[in-house]
Write a structure and sequence with these properties.
The chain is of the alpha+beta class. Helix content is about 20%, strand content about 30%. The protein is extended, with a radius of gyration of 30 Å.
Amino acid sequence: MQDDNQPTNDSDFLKDLPIRSEEIAFKPEELILCAKCARTNPPTRLKCVYCGAELELSAEQTAKISPVLRKLENWESGFNVIYLPPSAINDSGEPAEIAKFLSLEKEDLQIILETQKPLPIARTESAKEAEILQTQLKTMGLETSVISDESLAAENLPKRLRGMEFSDDKILLILFNNDEVEELNAADLCLMVSGAIFQKAVESLEKRKKGENKILETSETASDELLIDIYRKNDSTGYRILTKGFDFSCLEAEKGMLARENIKKLIAKLQTIMPNVK
């Protein structure tokens, strides 16, 4: 019987350990020099590890970058990568692989692809990162477009309308809170977006005593208001129709008692009047 207390030969013990055959570190010639702080960085990064400056990458180096799609803060301006159908996935990419690449659930990506409509699939913090993402997605069979938050100009709200009138191939738009009227050709209107504004408010009754607040009662209210935004060619501002404050007389005999139903009827009417609308 072998004595467990007998000292072992170190060389015999080490010879059974697995040996790493491949080099896992980056080679010196693969490292990228930061133009700002002059320090070297691994070739898998878009920004410098030390100073955060954007690195100057070659086309070969760009292909090695893996996107880090963090959720941007509300105050940050970003770049939106939009899926453009029709787009068939070729042999170089599968839905599961693309979903993993984009940090999406496979089921969510499948729904986006099946809609065959332009939909956002990623959001990046820089134009360079969006460009890299777009290039890599193309090799997987997905055509995309990049739209910046700045170009969307979300702070510029559409012009609110008080009413509309239809005449042959013309549409008269009556602006809210003034008598200004704009006349448009129905064929010039190219996009219609229907949606809603959701609002929630919480009210609480508190009692203060010796620096402490005690909540006695709370109440929560929620509401939503349907709306329509319409856009003409070469005009990113558009026009907005809200259920409140809009005269639905343009529906004529179809006009009902409820504004919520009238706005749905107006959507259907606009679709028949505007031949080029999406």
